[in-house]
Write a structure and sequence with these properties.
single chain; alpha/beta; binds xanthosine-5'-monophosphate; 10 helices; 6-stranded mixed sheet; 308 residues; 3-stranded mixed sheet
C-alpha cells in the first residue's frame, strides 16, 4: 500500500508517460473524484489538461460559484452554462428515470460539443474502484471513446484503483480545499431528483433555497460529520396552511437526513429536535410557497436515499 505522497509521485510519472505533450479533457463536477483527478493530472501535464465544468442548472445554492472560485486559478478551467438547454429538454417530464436519461444525454451532447472545440487526444475520468467493480466486465481498463464528429479520445483513469477514503487522502495531500474533499455526495442529476414531478425554474428555486437552509443549519452545528447526506425534497403535494388570518395552500417539503457508510444501506440517526424545528421554521418563513415541512424517518431499505 503506497502512502498518498508515493501514490501521487507514481501517478504523475504514469500520466506523463501516457499523455506526453498531448492535450486532455476532463468533465469536472466539483465532486471529490473529478476534483482530485483534475488536480492530479494538472500536476503532471499542466494547462494541457482542460477542465470542463457543465452547469446543468440543477446545482445547489452557490455551487457553481464555489466550484468556479476553487478551480479558476488552479486549472485550465472552462465554465459552461447549459442550464437553459437542460431545462428545455426536461420540460413536462415527470418520471425520475426519464429525467435521469435526458440529463445524461444532454450532458454528453454538451460535453462532446466542448470537447470538439479542443484538440484533445485524451479523456480523463475520475472513475474509482467501486464504479467498475460493480459493473465488472462492462468497463475495460483501456478503451477509446468515439465522438459523433469522428474525434476519438483515449480514456485515462488515474484513480481507478482507489476507494473513496483513499481519494480523500490524496486530495488532502494535493492541497485541495477540505470543503471539496469532504463534500456530501450529490447525485449527478442534481436537484432534478429532489423535485417531485415536472421541473420549473420556480420549483427548482424553492428546492434550492430549502436545501440551502438545511445545509447551513446542519453544518453550523457540525452535524454533517455524522451524516452521509442531508437534504430537502420538494414534493408535488400541496397542503393547507395559515398565513396571518388567511388560509394558504402551499408545498410540502420533506427533510431527509441519513447516516450511511456506502449508500447501499442507510439509517436515520438521532438528531437534536431544536435543529429540526429551526430548519422547519426557517423553510416556512423564508420560502413563502412552502406551508408544511415533514421529516422522513425511513431507513434504506425499504426506502432509497433519494425520493426520486
Ligand atoms: P438511492 O436513492 O438509490 O441513492 O438510495 C444511493 C446514492 O446514490 C446517489 N444517487 C445518484 N447519484 N446519479 C448519481 O450520480 C443518480 O442518478 C443518483 N441517484 C441516486 C444518492 O444521492 C445516494 O448517495
Amino acid at each position: 500500500m503506497l502512502s498518498p505522497e508515493e501514490f501521487i509521485k507514481d501517478a504523475i510519472t504514469k500520466i506523463k508517460d501516457e499523455i506526453g505533450d498531448e492535450k486532455a479533457i476532463i468533465a469536472l463536477s466539483g465532486g471529490v473524484d473529478s476534483s482530485v483527478c483534475s488536480v492530479l493530472v494538472k500536476e503532471a501535464i499542466g494547462d494541457n489538461l482542460i477542465a470542463i465544468f457543465v452547469d446543468h442548472g440543477l446545482l445547489r445554492q452557490g455551487e457553481a460559484e464555489q466550484v468556479t472560485n476553487t478551480f479558476k486559478d488552479k486549472l485550465n478551467f472552462n465554465y459552461v452554462d447549459a442550464s437553459q438547454e437542460f431545462l428545455n429538454a426536461l420540460k413536462d417530464v415527470e418520471d425520475p428515470e426519464e429525467k435521469r436519461k435526458i440529463i445524461g444525454k444532454v450532458f454528453i451532447d454538451v460535453f462532446e460539443r466542448e470537447a470538439e472545440k479542443t484538440d484533445a487526444k485524451f479523456l480523463v475520468q475520475g472513475t474509482i474502484a467501486p464504479d467498475w467493480i460493480e459493473t465488472e466486465g462492462k468497463i475495460k481498463s483501456h478503451h477509446n471513446l468515439a465522438l459523433p464528429s469522428g474525434m476519438v479520445l483515449e480514456v485515462v483513469e488515474p484513480i481507478r484503483d482507489l476507494y473513496k477514503d483513499e481519494v480523500r487522502e490524496i486530495g488532502l495531500e494535493l492541497g485541495l480545499d477540505e470543503k471539496i474533499v469532504y463534500r456530501q455526495p450529490f447525485p449527478g442529476p442534481g436537484l432534478a431528483v429532489r423535485v417531485i414531478g415536472t421541473l420549473t425554474p420556480d420549483k427548482l428555486d424553492i428546492c434550492r433555497k430549502a436545501n440551502g437552509i438545511v445545509s447551513e443549519e446542519i453544518e453550523k452545528e457540525g452535524l454533517n460529520e455524522d451524516l452521509w447526506q442531508y437534504f430537502a425534497v420538494l414534493t408535488d403535494t400541496k397542503v393547507t396552511g395559515v398565513k396571518g388570518d388567511q388560509r394558504d395552500f402551499g408545498y410540502l417539503v420533506v427533510l431527509r437526513l441519513v447516516s450511511s457508510t456506502d449508500a447501499m444501506t442507510a439509517y436515520i440517526p438521532e438528531l437534536p429536535w431544536e435543529v429540526i424545528r429551526r430548519m422547519s421554521k426557517r423553510i416556512t418563513s423564508e420560502i413563502p410557497e412552502v406551508t408544511h415541512v415533514a421529516l422522513s424517518i425511513s431507513d434504506k431499505p425499504p426506502s432509497t436515499i433519494e425520493f426520486a
